[in-house]
Fold each of these.
Amino acid sequence: MKNVILIFLCILSIIFFSRVLPHLPNFTPVISLAIYSSFFLKRLGMISFLISYLFVDMYLGLNSILIWTWGSFLIILYLSNFIKNINHRILAIFSMPTIFFLITNFGVWTTGYYDLTFQGLLKCYTMALPFYANTLVSTAFFSLLIEFIILFKKRIFQT
């Protein structure tokens, strides 16, 4: 039980501080955390991630595309259960931010901020490309950091 509480508090802290402290837009470890918490911790990781994300969203305030953001994370968490090896993790590092980008920006488009036409949808995605780049880079960066931590832990406890 102590490990469960520790895991939850770690995930909550990482999500909270990465979203509250100043950072480049969309440059957070959140997608990496979703991928790896689900991959390594299965249901415990998924539940910890979702509860942590809920707490942080309640603190930051709810918004009009919340269902799209949460929907994208539910899909990312679900798909992360099918990761079996390092090749799958590499694929996930690049595909999961794309899923997040496509779903959440579709949600932005549905709010009517952009014309509710095909041209408006294209403009919405085009305007979001800089955020997508930050999401891709941050997911790769934080995933690499997680991989190094895993490797370091294996090396330390094997000797």
Note: Residues 119 and 152 are 48 Å apart (CA to CA).
Amino acid sequence: MTATTSSSAATATPSPLADATRDEASLRRFLHGLPGVDQVGVEQRAAGLGTRSIKKAAKLWAIDTAISMVDLTTLEGADTQGKVRALAAKAKRPDPERPDTPQVAAVCVYPDMVETAVEALRGTGIHVASVATGFPAGRTSREIKLADTKIAVDAGAAEIDMVIDRGAFLEGRYLEVFEEIQAIKAACGSAHLKVILETGELATYDNVRRASWLALLAGGDFIKTSTGKVSPAATLPVTHVMLQAVRDWFVQTGELRGVKPAGGIRTTKDAIKYLVAVHEVAGEQWLTPDLFRFGASSLLNDLLLQRRTQADGHYSGPDYVTVD
């Protein structure tokens, strides 16, 4: 992820948006003054874009692009150093028999596994991401969240995926959420910050739009749908709302921020629907791993199978790729 893809902490927020974060009342007024989301409209548009047909040459490009956008992830209590090293090996060479297969964007692990991942990926250009801030529930003190972040950054993580306090957000304590994101962003140093909204717990599209803008105002480099631990996780309509937010942010500020749908995206067909949405809702500029990611490790297996099918003209079967 390059420094040009997002605002850095040093980038000044334009005055009207800075005024929005002066105090709780100003922030509430700004967030509740955002245009409401047309639920029927956004769901119909998402369904319509999902029916677009992709021709063979474009499909191969889409598959390679999707592979390059994957954050290959293991976030289990039974994670071991050996499992992380194996995941790193797959990240470097997703299909060992096809050396022209793109590498993935990042490997995402818990903070205590960052050092192992960094060592395994050194010199590859693949980023090491780490969840932090009491992932996935975030039900711990800010001091512990900051310490969690520091552990990951000190171990070499280039990206931090934090969870917002959904309870505080749903109770309307927007400034508290804003200040916590700001504090985590500062603790990241040069690492990029992905802000997980856990959209499945936000109940409405209007809340998704408000949470997206809140994260952007606080300095998040990416807004991310989900932890993958709550259902529903990523959906096309929710991702549309978030893509609209980063597009509108860019129009107002000139700053590029990214979007990461995570959880529930398992097939190449699904991935292509998301890429179409990126192109049509945000714009072609977002069709890069610097600005769009998939948090979906099982997706990679299907992408690799479909890539072989496109290249060879016949279905290869699941035994030709490793299963996560």
Note: The chain has 13 helices and seven strands.
Amino acid sequence: MEVLKIGILGLVGVMLALQFKSTRPEIGIYIGFAVCIVLFSLSLDGLCQIMKQIEVLQQYMQVSGPYFKLLFKAVGITYICEFCAAVCKDAGHGAIAGQIEVFGKVSVLFLGLPILTAIVETISNITG
């Protein structure tokens, strides 16, 4: 049922934005941005529920907590960067959107370096 509400909200937002596109395009951009923020906030509620379920699963697993925190941070970075880049593309600023996407990729890469270091250390300890 939630997916239906989100789909309808998205379609209504697009229809409203299209109504203003020819006469006042800035209002269409503002409507699109407002709908994006509402959809983003609804998605965050779902992500919070997923995080709670993963924390319950983490109690049963022998994996340490920092790895799950890094995973959540990486998902958050990608989600926020994708959202911001989509809004920028919609507003006609593709170059800015591209730079946001590059920043997100570099941030996730930087965030994953401790895991890569731990893997290399483990392999070096096993081999000699």
Note: Helices lie at 2-21, 25-60, 65-90, 94-127.
